[in-house]
Each structure stands twice: as structure tokens, then as C-alpha cells.
Design brief:
By secondary structure, the chain is of the alpha/beta class. Helix content is about 35%, strand content about 20%. The chain has 20 helices and 18 strands. It has helices spanning about 5-15, 30-35, 50-60, 70-90, 115-120, 135-145, 160-165, 185-195, 210-225, 255-260, 305-315, 340-350, 365-370, 390-400, 410-415, 420-430, 445-450, 460-465, 475-480, 490-505; strands at about 20, 40-45, 65-70, 95-100, 125-130, 155-160, 200-205, 225-230, 235-240, 245-250, 265-270, 295-300, 355-360, 375-380, 405-410, 430-440, 485-490, 510-514. A seven-stranded mixed beta sheet has the order 9-14-13-15-16-18-17, sandwiched between helices. A six-stranded parallel beta sheet has the order 2-1-3-4-6-5, sandwiched between helices. The chain has a five-stranded parallel beta sheet with strand order 10-8-7-11-12. Helix 1 crosses helix 2, helix 3 (about 50-60) packs parallel to helix 4 (about 70-90) and helix 9 (about 210-225) packs parallel to helix 11. The termini are far apart. The chain binds thiamine diphosphate and magnesium ion.
Length: about 525
């Protein structure tokens, strides 16, 4: 068994069953090994941003890492933007990056680069395998690192000769450290704060906006009157009918400040203390009001659910059920498409157990509120702010959950970063319905222009925020990659198109003209 095969067998034994790939010459032994080993699904992405973004979506829905296969420094570099997003989402990912054979590196052939230097800032764990006998053990260590709470980016660089030389056999998975439990004093302090009777919020993310964590948060709110809030961005929120409803802190600074202005206390469950996405002249960076100091109940890497359970005990919130949202979706509107009618139509039509990937930017400002009482669903956001994640994220989520409808809410500018994810969706027959919001603009940046106080933008500046000349035709772009679709211009067409998308096996794209 060569090193490559020992690595693939180790990955499969370590419950890594999907590999998103964009290979090259230095990874050929790994590619061939994928065929010799059962239990590894291989998914080709036509750019490395598809590969890394899909690995993020897969990890969020499967709660375990996928592998990626990337070609030397440039292949990794192409994937870095979505690796940044995955790292911010704390998604576990195992990257395998091929390199030149150890003895070939000193000749400085064209594809030679400092791969570790490129990887280091965005990876939590990084290693170059020294020889074929070590590769399997390094792979096992990478899996354990990726799975270490709260989820890490682990990157293993594989020189070509470590792949083709005789390997050391399958390596066992080292133990994954358990999530640390928070101290009793921390729970007691949070309980004291919530019982004080002063205006307080419990800020949630990660395991606190899913399953038992969310349930516990709801019970704590019912018992103490604390306000439940979620971060502006969350990797995955379970919401809709039957779930505890949680408001999010808005992205724009002024509404965020207004939401938080009366708080005396903020207790953090997995979440970070809220700060503005960007600095703006004359606006604060910190969103909580002066004198409202955050209390950390549990950091994301700690056992957040256990901390919530102990807090629930401490405040006597063990018995009563949490208040959940009723099933009461908006009525389906008719007539012209605008952001309000679009949000209502989405809320009305969202199918049960949908996975919603939200990169709708300005078009989606109403969507979250208008889907609050829709059928139960999961909501996935871009955690790192590097746009272009939506289509790959939806691709990976659909690979992880073939039995659930994936709805990708994608804006035109962001969609163009990585549109070839549509090809992967077509090839893999993935159930993704993309609702593509075509406003022919980087609309948010027009707003930001005013917010940062940039005065009187001229023709050149305005032109940098405009996506016309030529207008993009998303139905044609999708068709060219094997994805059927249609263009819609009013709510009735939207409802029909969305319905066709949900019924059509495999991917579908609805281009929504705004
Ligand atoms: C990698 C990356 N490049 C650039 C940006 C800056 N940026 C933020 S939003 C945006 C435009 C978004 O336009 P679109 O996706 O069409 O959404 P809209 O604002 O029109 O709703 C840009 C370029 C970014 N966040 N990430
Ligand atoms: Mg746009």
C-alpha cells in the first residue's frame, strides 16, 4: 500500500466519506487511491473556491469534516477566501494539498511556492508529511485536529513522493479532546445576572441555536424574561414553526445600536460580544451600550449546551416548556415583485425541513423576519464576509443532506464569484433551488458609500457599483452549466418558478428580476 492509499483508507476509517477535489499532477496517486478504496465519495469542483466552500456547507450539515484535495500553493490560494469563511464558521475541514516530491523542490520548478506560508494564517492545524510511512498518521492527526471543538481547519501537505512510496498502513484516529465544561462560578454569575431583574439579553450562536441548546435557551427566557438574541451571522440556526424564535442583531450599525440600547447585561452563550462589521466615522465599534458589560457563559469551544442546561437549573427553568413559533406563514401575495412581496412569497412557500443558504445581501433584509413562522427549516449564513460563498455552500449542504431541499438565496454580484458551483450541482444531481436576485448592482456598497461619509461620488465611483453594460443573463449562464431555470418578473411567476424548482429533480435556478 502506497502512502496515498494509506491516507485514503485512514480518512475513510476516520469517518471522512466525502472529498471535494480539484486535482493536479502532484495529487495523481491520491486520485487513483480514491478508486481503490470503498466509502469515499469524490466531488469535482471547477475552481478551488467551490471545493473549500462546499466543504464548509458539508461540515455545517453533516457535523463532521469532508476532505478537500487541492493542487500545490496556487490551488490552495484559489481556495483561501472560502477557507477563511469556513474557519469563521468553525467548520471542521481536512485539506490535503499536494506538493512537489521532496527531492524536486530544490529545483524551483514553476509551481513551487511556500505552501505553508500561504496556509498558515487561515489554518488552525498545519503539517507537511515528511515521508510515506508517516502520511497515514498525519492524516489521522489532521482529522482529530479538524474535529477538535469548536471545529478547525486542518491542512496536510503531501509531497508527491510521500504519496507514491510504500506507506505505513492505516493509522488509528487519535482521541479528540472533549469540550471543556465551564466552571460553576461562571454559571452562578450568569444566573445572578438573569435574576437581577435588569434588562438583559442572552446572545446565542453555534450549538445554542440548534436542538437542545435552543430549547434550553427558550426555557431560560420563559423563566427569567431574558431577551434571546442571535449573532448577526450564524453558521446554522434551526428556526420556523415549532422552534424557539430568536431575533438576530441587524447588520447596519444604527438599527443594531437601537436594538441593544436599553440593555444592562449581555450573557454570551457561544457568541462573541457584538461589534460592528466595519468601522464608520462617528459610529461606535462596540454595539452594546456603555456600562453593559458582556458576561461570558460559555465560549464556542466550550460545552455550550451543558452550560445552558446548568444555567436553566440555576434559574429554575427546568420544568416549563419553551415558547415556540406557531406555524403561521405569510399569505402568498400577488402583483409586482419588491423586497416586501418577495419576502412574503418566500415565507409562504418555504418547504418543510428546507436548508436555506442566505447570501441575499440587500435583497434579503426582510427574509429572516418573514420566515419566522414558516415551516421548520435551517438557516445558514456567510460567517466570514468574503462574498461568493452561497452557491458552493449550498452545494456542500446538498451533498450532506440529499433528502432535504436546499434553497440558495443568492445575489447577483456575490453569485458571480463562484458560479461554476452550478456545474457541480448539475453533475451530482443535487437538489438545490437557487433564487438569484438580479438587481444589476453591488447595491449594498451604494449604501455603504453614504455610511462611511464618502461625499459626492462621481461617475467612475458609481460605475464601480453597477453591474450593467452588459447585463448578466443568469438563466443562460445556468443553462450553460447544465442547470435549467427561468426568469421571473412578478410574484405569480416567482411562485410558479420556485414551485418548479422544488419539483424538478436536481438543481434549478430562478432569476428574480428586481
Ligand atoms: C471577497 C470579497 N470581495 C469584495 C467584497 C466587498 N463586497 C461586499 S458586498 C459586495 C457587493 C454585493 O453585491 P451583490 O451580491 O449583488 O448584493 P447586493 O448588494 O446587490 O444586494 C462587495 C463587492 C467582499 N465582501 N468580499
Ligand atoms: Mg446585486
Amino acid at each position: 500500500m502506497n502512502g496515498a492509499e494509506s491516507l485514503v483508507r485512514t480518512l475513510v476509517a476516520g469517518d471522512v466519506n466525502v472529498c471535494f477535489t480539484n486535482p493536479g499532477t502532484s495529487e495523481m496517486h491520491f486520485v487513483v487511491a480514491l478508486d481503490r478504496v470503498d466509502g469515499m465519495r469524490c466531488v469535482l469542483g471547477l475552481h478551488e473556491t467551490v471545493v473549500t466552500g462546499a466543504a464548509d456547507g458539508y461540515a455545517r450539515m453533516a457535523d463532521k469534516p469532508a476532505a478537500t484535495l487541492l493542487h500545490l500553493g496556487p490551488g490552495l490560494a484559489n481556495g483561501l477566501a472560502n477557507l477563511h469563511n469556513a474557519g469563521r464558521a468553525r467548520s471542521p475541514v481536512v485539506n490535503i494539498v499536494g506538493d512537489h516530491a521532496t527531492y524536486h523542490r530544490r529545483f524551483d520548478a514553476p509551481l513551487t511556492s511556500d505552501i505553508e506560508g500561504l496556509a498558515r494564517p487561515l489554518c488552525h492545524w498545519l503539517r507537511t508529511s515528511p515521508d510515506a510511512r508517516q502520511v497515514a498518521a498525519d492524516g489521522a492527526a489532521a482529522i482529530a485536529a479538524a474535529r477538535t471543538s469548536p471545529g478547525q481547519i486542518a491542512t496536510l501537505i503531501l509531497p508527491a513522493d510521500t504519496a507514491w512510496n510504500e506507506g505505513g498502513g492505516v493509522a488509528p484516529l487519535p482521541p479528540v479532546p472533549a469540550r471543556a465544561q465551564v466552571a460553576d462560578a461562571v454559571v452562578a454569575e450568569a444566573a445572578r445576572v438573569l435574576r437581577a431583574g435588569e434588562p438583559a439579553a442572552l446572545l446565542l450562536t453555534g450549538p445554542a441555536v440548534r436542538g437542545r441548546g435552543l430549547e434550553l435557551a427558550g426555557r431560560i427566557a420563559a423563566a427569567t424574561g431574558v431577551r434571546l438574541l442571535a449573532q448577526t451571522s450564524n453558521a446554522r440556526i434551526e428556526r420556523g414553526a415549532g422552534r424557539v424564535p430568536v431575533e438576530r442583531i441587524p447588520y447596519p450599525v444604527d438599527p443594531a445600536l437601537a436594538m441593544l440600547k436599553d440593555l444592562k447585561h449581555m450573557v454570551l452563550a457561544g457568541a462573541k460580544a457584538p461589534v460592528a462589521f466595519f468601522a464608520y466615522p462617528d459610529k461606535p465599534s462596540v454595539l452594546t451600550p456603555p456600562g453593559c458589560d458582556p458576561h461570558v457563559l460559555a465560549r464556542l469551544e466550550e460545552d455550550v449546551v451543558d452550560a445552558l442546561a446548568r444555567l436553566a437549573d440555576a434559574v429554575g427553568a427546568t420544568a416549563g416548556p419553551a415558547a415556540t413559533a406557531p406555524l403561521d406563514p405569510p399569505g402568498l401575495p400577488t402583483g409586482p415583485l419588491n423586497l416586501e412581496s418577495l419576502g412574503r412569497a418566500l415565507g409562504a412557500l418555504l418547504p418543510e425541513h428546507a436548508i436555506v443558504v442566505d447570501e441575499s445581501i440587500t435583497s434579503g433584509r426582510n427574509f429572516y423576519a418573514l420566515t419566522r413562522q414558516s415551516r421548520p427549516h435551517d438557516w445558514l449564513q456567510n460567517m466570514g464576509g468574503s462574498i461568493g460563498l452561497g452557491l458552493p455552500l449550498a452545494t456542500g449542504a446538498a451533498v450532506a443532506c440529499p433528502d432535504r431541499p436546499v434553497i440558495c438565496l443568492e445575489s447577483d454580484g456575490s453569485g458571480m464569484y463562484c458560479l461554476q458551483a452550478l456545474w457541480t450541482q448539475a453533475r451530482e444531481g443535487l437538489n438545490v433551488t437557487t433564487l438569484l436576485f438580479n438587481n444589476r448592482a453591488y447595491a449594498i456598497l451604494r449604501h455603504e458609500l453614504a455610511q462611511v461619509g464618502a461625499q459626492n461620488p462621481g461617475r467612475k465611483a458609481v460605475d464601480m457599483l453597477d453591474l450593467g453594460r452588459p447585463d448578466l443573463d443568469w438563466v443562460m449562464l445556468a443553462r450553460g452549466m447544465g442547470v435549467p431555470g427561468e426568469r421571473v418578473t412578478n410574484v405569480d411567476e416567482f411562485a410558479r418558478g420556485f414551485g418548479r424548482g422544488l419539483k424538478t429533480p436536481g438543481p434549478y435556478l430562478v432569476e428574480v428580476m428586481l
